[in-house]
Amino acid sequence: xxxxxxxxxxxxxxxxxxxxxxxxxxxxxxxxxxxxxxxxxxxxxxxxxxxxxxxxxxxxxxxxxxxxxxxxxxxxxxxxxxxxxxxxxxxxxxxxxxxxxxxxxxxxxxxxxxxxxxxxxxxxxxxxxxxxx
Length: 133
Prior knowledge:
elongated, mainly alpha
């Protein structure tokens, strides 16, 4: 019975087509990237997207954490707290919107089977974590 459904010939450890595995990395950016980075050792395209999604997810989450911590501190300053509340709210929205745009572009590129790197984020990631590249 097992001979009726042979495993797909993808040359990967997951058995998924490269673009599907890369797309899953892009959709579930940080967690998916970490999972596929450790599971997939043969398919270099999937590993590329796993690394890209780790960089992107960490940067996006890190930016939100930094904004949250700074706004939580500076909003409570007497007299200028409302100004900081508005500025950090605007900054939060800009980071969210930019991240959403990059996230959607990454998903599209991954499912299309294209190699692509997130601007700025990938270069910084390669500088600080050269062993991942």
